[in-house]
Amino acid sequence: EKGGFPSFMEKEIFDQPAAVADTLLGRSDADGRLTLDELRIDAEELTKISKIVVLACGTSAYAGSVAKYAIESWCRIPVEVELSHEFRYREPIVDENTLIVSISQSGETMDTLMAVRYAKEQGAKTMSICNTNGSTIPRESDAVLYTHAGPEIAVASTKAFLAQITATYLLGLYLAQLRGNLFQGQIKDILADLGKIPSKIQDILDRSDEIKELARSMADASSVLFLGRHVGYPVAMEGALKLKEIAYIHAEGFAAGELKHGPIALIDDGQPVFVVVPSPRGRDSLHSKVVSNIQEVRARGAKTLVIAEDGDDSVKDFSEWVFYVPETPTLLMPLLATVPLQIFACELASAKGFDVDQPRNLAKSVTVE
Ligand code: F6R
User: Fold this and answer.
1) Beta strands in 26-94 (DSSP E)
2) Is 328 in the pocket of ligand 1 (CB under 6 A)?
3) Do the Cβ atoms of 137 and 112 come closer than 8 Å?
4) Residues 239, 344: contact at Cβ < 8 Å?
5) In sequence order, what are the beta bridge partners of 102?
6) How far apart are CA 106 and CA 137, in angstroms?
7) How many A from CA of 157 to the centre of ligand 1?
8) ipTM exceeding 0.90?
9) How many angstroms does the Cα of residue 105 sit away from the middle of ligand 1?
10) CA of 116 to the centre of ligand 1 (A)
């Protein structure tokens, strides 16, 4: 069943072109008009929404953090992202104009289920982005947008994450279409860019040996840091989480702008730091800020491991190692930049002899509080 791969996790990393393609499939027509019929929330009601609150845990919450950048940019609706277990124990302000979007691979995460129930009691509309047909969270929600990643067996989430991000983009574009925030031509262009993502992921997978070699050389690392800005920030968080979960290495993700507010004190000679660099074709200040961050940590002895966009020559001089991902608009970049970090964690954990599919102390679905 592992399709010739040594682990389910590696197989699922390699399933990602299909996970994204299948999640996009059949959800728009040739003119780029989205038809999310399955949603079951009235178009009229959706146009009245004044706030979106994303509820999720772990990797699924990082998908929500990516969604915040895209949905706010495309729809101009404020998006809050909150861990389900934090949301449910405060007194959150939600009402009938709030759209709750829960994100859960399993659809059974107890904290997310309880948070959705609570929001529903307060009168909010609830939508579930879920990978498991007929599971509890989508059954109890007003609407559901299924991710079509297929069953995810490995405990650490990979293909479900990319499928979740894809689904939130579809939701964002659908809301922009309903509310008239984007022209139809703009939506069509973004969908076309999304349509190219599966083959770009494949391009990364085809070069996985470059990443695996680095991972094997770092099997003795005791701590790895990950930096990102904008959509690169949740990617950095996810890269760190993967490494903690399956390789049991101390890893931390930071917003690159926070460096000087504390974390830079951690940097000393040889400290490995992954940096997710945004496209140089995007907002210029964003790219140049991250390049300065690479220089700052390098000057303090860090071993800089850089994920950058094809053709970005500005990072070479400051990096020990660079992995190039294909060009794509900044908002879609997490679908590419995450992949090398998944491969890195999987290979490093395997090199240490760990069972990457069944990491210690973790369960695939967390049905207890
Ligand atoms: C990380 C991971 C967990 C889950 C989290 C939420 O690799 O698998 O962090 O993402 O437990 O699970 P779901 O999405 O099933 O609600």
Assistant:
1) 51-56, 79-83
2) no
3) yes
4) yes
5) 55, 128
6) 9
7) 6
8) yes
9) 7
10) 16
